[in-house]
Design brief:
Strand order of the largest sheet: 1-7-6-5-4-3-2
Shape: globular
Distance between the termini: 54 Å
Order of helices and strands: EHEEEEEEH
Number of strands: 7
Number of helices: 2
Length: 163
């Protein structure tokens, strides 16, 4: 946290190829099924080079609750880069960039968000709260990537076995 600016940098590796990772990170219409703080997530419009998503939910940590809602513009550079930009919502600013890099049998995900909330967030509590929420969200997405990969592998083995 730098003044009113919140900057989030994270990266992780997952044992899946970039396409498998991409399919989860861009599955906005089903994201509320596997990210627990989302109540609703959907694509609301599509144009030639971008689309718009709507998401709402509640971030919770202990007794702290932060309901959120956003409409964001998303631009995709397939299997490499995801850019999001806030159109409207309960933040002044919310811009994110996610990079996917092929890495020795898996994919490295590098993500950066820059945000300015419309409500004041105390620095000490806010830092712990935000770190918790971001870790939880990306851990749930990572778990979904692994779940889908395992399901695809199982399905492939069943086809080979004639089941």
């Amino acid at each position: 946290m730098a003044g009113e600016n919140i900057i989030i940098d994270l990266n992780f590796a997952v044992s899946a190829n970039p396409r498998e990772v991409w399919d989860v990170l861009t599955d906005f219409d089903r994201m509320a099924d596997f990210v627990s703080n989302l109540k609703e997530s959907k694509v609301v419009s599509i144009s030639e080079d971008k689309f718009t998503i709507f998401q709402n939910g509640t971030a919770t940590y202990g007794l702290i609750r932060y309901p959120f809602e956003s409409i964001r513009e998303v631009r995709l550079i397939p299997y490499h880069k995801i850019l999001t930009h806030l159109v409207s919502g309960n933040m002044h600013k919310l811009d994110g960039t996610t990079y996917l890099t092929d890495e020795a049998g898996g994919t490295r995900v590098v993500h950066r968000t820059e945000a300015i909330p419309k409500v004041w967030i105390p620095a000490v509590v806010g830092k712990v709260f935000i770190e918790h929420e971001v870790r939880e969200q990306f851990n749930e997405m990572r778990n979904e990537i692994i779940r889908r990969k395992r399901a695809a592998l199982k399905k492939g083995h069943e086809k080979q076995d004639g089941r």
